[in-house]
Amino acid sequence: MDWSIRILLDRLSNSLFLINKTKFYFGCTRLFLVTKRFSHFVGLAKSDIDNQLARYQVRPESIDLCLAAIHEFVAYVRANESGTLRYEVWQERDDPTRFVHIFVFRDAEADRIHSESAAVKKFSSILYPECLAPVEFIDYQHVVSNI
Q1: What are the chain's domains?
Q2: Which of 139, 144, 109, 146 lies closest to 39, judged by CA?
Q3: For residue 115, what are the contacts with CB-CB under 8 A and spacing of at least 6?
Q4: How far is 37 from 52, CA to CA, in rounded Å?
Q5: C-alpha 56, offset from chain centre
Q6: Is the Cα dihedral 110, 115, 117, 123 positive or negative?
Q7: Cβ neighbours of 8 (radius 10 Å)
Q8: What's the gap between Cα 66 and its chain centre?
Q9: What is the pTM of this model?
C-alpha cells in the first residue's frame, strides 16, 4: 500500500507539487499532514477520531455579527487547539443564514478541551442568541474519503 504523506493546507488546495512521489498541496492557512487514507489521519485509527457536525440558522440581520464571531473563533482554534485536527465553517449559498461547522478532534480529550474553552463560551454567547433554533450537534463515523 502507498502511505505517501500529503501536506494539505486547510483543504483549500491551490497548487499540487510532486517530490519523490509524495504529493504536496498548498493553499491557505494551517498545515495538515495526512496519509493516503483518512483512517490513518496523523497516525490515528479511524475509531480514535471524533467527527462532529453542527448546523444552525441565524437571523438575517445578524449575519455580519455571526460571521465576525466565526472568524475570530476559528482563528483561536487554529492557534490554540492542536487536538482539533479540522475545523471548517460552511455558509449555505442559497440561504446565507444557514451554517454548518465540521470539526474533527484527535480524541475525546481534545473534544473536551475544545468544548470547555473560554473561546467556545464567548463564541456561544454571541452566536446562540442570534439562532432561530438551538444548534444541532451530530456525531459521525467516518466511512471513506478521497484524501
Answers
A1: 6-36 (no CATH), 47-140 (3.30.70.100)
A2: 144
A3: none
A4: 19
A5: 16
A6: positive
A7: 19
A8: 17
A9: 0.67
Q: What is the pLDDT of residues 53-67, one digit of tens each?
A: 999 999 999 999 999
Amino acid at 2: D
Please state, as a whole number, how many other Cβ atoms lie within 10 Å of the Cβ of residue 66: 22
Q: Are 147 and 16 in contact (CB under 8 A)?
A: no
- At 66, phi and psi to the nearest 5? -65, -40
Q: Are 27 and 8 in contact (CB under 8 A)?
A: yes
CB 42 within 8 A of CB 26: no
- Range with the poorest average pLDDT among 13-22, 75-84, 114-123: 13-22
DSSP assigned state of 66: H
Dihedral, CA atoms, 53, 54, 56, 62, nearest 10 degrees? Answer: -120
Question: What kind and span of H or E run contains 34?
Answer: strand 31-34
Alpha helices in the chain (DSSP H): 63-80, 108-115, 118-127
